[in-house]
Write a structure and sequence with these properties.
alpha/beta, binds norvaline, binds phosphoric acid mono(formamide)ester, Rossmann fold, single chain
């Protein structure tokens, strides 16, 4: 069965460790497993980090990335998501996509599976999840903290796509997650069930100060995600008091590092002083997007049996 990567728990915990191990290897130690293979990178939404890090990860493994914008393929407008997937699979070894609706990825993977086409589909962010980001987040935490099991991450903000993949990944790695969100943007009951099934320890509160107690890392994401721009004013009101700022940092252990998937809005979910301060590791985290993607692609190549 083809190994699609639509959410972080499509990997087993030992496979997740394996991807992080591959991501930690110097480029020179990885064989060019994508030699002369194409990797499609479809974007229905904008991207700075994901596009560049993915293109360079593909190139580092000897492959050829082809970035494709929303208008070019017109998923479900020019042709169906299934036909886009079947078409791109004629040329590419991996089909990566950033989509408006998570269901699009599920349909693409389903169409390829039904046709017996062994091309993995990789989620480059959907409304539900951002598993490639979570790989980079865990890689950064591992570099900063060493062994992950027993550590604690505090997440302050919207329990949305980035939170979901991070929380699932933390659960798989034995990292406790303390989440502070306004009640209407708190983790959904289904997510809590899935987290517990993954063995996660999750504490949910509406109080950021309570969330950061004992945290080894503090994480936040934008209040208004791509596609929610018409809710921006209401979200600013809902998230007032949830800024990761110097005051909040004083309530956390002094060794805590600060992470943000970026893009950041200084003065909203994070203050400039914290984002640009000494505890911030956001640029290391951004750089790790490339290493994490290289690790994931190398792992897929190994399980799919591609050789240089
Ligand atoms: N963090 C992240 O996915 O950034 P981009 O939206 O710029 O790709
Ligand atoms: N939650 C944000 C993440 C951006 C990387 C969004 O979906 O826009």
């Amino acid at each position: 069965m083809t190994r699609h990567f639509l959410e972080i728990d499509d990997l087993a915990p030992d496979e997740l460790r394996g991807v992080l191990d591959l991501a930690s290897l110097p480029v020179a130690e990885l064989p060019p497993v994508l030699d002369r293979r194409g990797v499609a990178l479809v974007f229905e939404k904008p991207s700075a980090r994901t596009r560049s890090s993915s293109e360079l990860a593909v190139a580092a493994l000897g492959g050829h990335p082809v970035t494709i914008g929303a208008v070019e393929v017109g998923i479900d407008t020019r042709e169906t998501a299934e036909d886009v997937a079947r078409t791109l699979a004629c040329y590419h070894a991996v089909l990566c996509a950033r989509v408006l609706r998570h269901e699009t990825l599920v349909r693409m993977a389903g169409a390829l599976d039904t046709a017996g086409i062994a091309v993995p589909v990789v989620n480059l962010l959907s409304d539900q999840s951002h598993p490639c980001q979570a790989l980079a987040d865990l890689l950064t935490l591992r570099q900063e903290l060493g062994e992950l099991a027993g550590r604690t991450v505090a997440y302050i903000g919207d329990a949305n796509n980035v939170w979901r993949s991070l929380a699932f990944g933390c659960a798989m790695a034995g990292v406790a997650v303390r989440t502070a969100s306004p009640a209407e943007h708190a983790p959904a009951p289904d997510d809590m069930v899935r987290l517990r099934q993954l063995g996660g320890t999750v504490h949910v509160t509406v109080d950021p100060v309570e969330a950061v107690a004992g945290a080894d890392a503090i994480y936040t994401d934008v209040w208004t995600s791509m596609g929610q721009e018409n809710e921006a004013a209401a979200r600013r009101r809902a998230f007032a008091g949830f800024t990761v700022d110097e005051d909040l940092l004083r309530s956390a252990p002094s060794h805590a590092v600060v992470l943000h998937c970026l893009p950041a809005h200084r003065g909203e979910e994070i203050s400039a002083a914290v984002l640009d301060g000494t505890q911030s590791r956001v640029w290391r985290q951004a750089a790790n997007r490339m290493h994490a993607m290289r690790g994931l692609l190398a792992w897929l190549a190994a399980v799919e049996g591609w050789s240089p």
